[in-house]
Structure formats: structure tokens, C-alpha cells
Write a structure and sequence with these properties.
The protein has about 140 residues and is mostly beta strands. It has a domain at about 30-75 and about 85-125: Immunoglobulin-like. Helices cover about 15% and strands about 35% of the residues. It has a four-stranded antiparallel sheet with strand order 1-2-7-6, with no helix packed on it. A hairpin with a 2-residue loop joins strand 3 (about 55-60) and strand 4 (about 65-70).
Length: about 140
Amino acid sequence: MAIVKWEPFGEFDRFFDDLPGRGLLHMGRDMAVDLYEDGNNIIAEMSVSGMDPEKIDVTVEGDYLRICGTREEETEKKEKHFYSKEIQRGSFERALRLPEMVDATAVEAEYEDGVLKITMPKKGSEKREKIKVVVKK
């Protein structure tokens, strides 16, 4: 008989994976966002395959990027017997804190091949002069 290492937290994961409505628990995994800098822009990319681009809203509020939308359930004409159903449906919202301030009036979003790409130009930062610290004796 083989010895199998018991992982108690693995039991918790399995428990939550088997719950009906587990999509609420795993929605964050499905809505992952890559955020990176490219030259003078901050870029956010998100996989949104199967979504109608007209049902995705992108806003920049202060130093936060907010992406929300809906992936709708297909209406079924006849009952299906699912062996598994893992595609997440319903509304979602992601808010990401941006590493730098961006020009909210120049943000562009494009949807191609199931990927939403948001380009946000960085705000021109004012050059700060060095200030000499005077030490009083």
C-alpha cells in the first residue's frame, strides 16, 4: 500500500470546488488582468472571450482602473446533460489600482481575438527639483 501525504487544506479546496454555485468563489481566477508599462503607457490586458464588447465598460477614476461587464448565459432550447460546467457566466467587476496617474481623457480600449487591451497614457509628471536639506545646529 502506498503512503499518501495528507494535505488538510487540499480538503478545503476540494470541498469548495464541489459546491454548487462555485463560480462566485472562482470568478477572480477567470477575470485575471495583466498590467504592465510600455514606454509612456500603462497597458491592461484581460481575457474576455465569449463576451460581447458592447457589454464591457472601462472607466478610470482617480488612480483606479475599473472594468465591468456581463457574460450572458445562453438560452437553452432543450435540456442538456452536462458532465461539467466551468465557463463562468454573469456580471463581473475588477478594480485595479494603477501604479501611476494616467490621462483619463486619452484612454483607449480595443477588443481583438477575445482579449481586451486598455492603453492608458501616463500623465506628464512635473520634474521636481532636488531640495537641499539644511541641518540646524
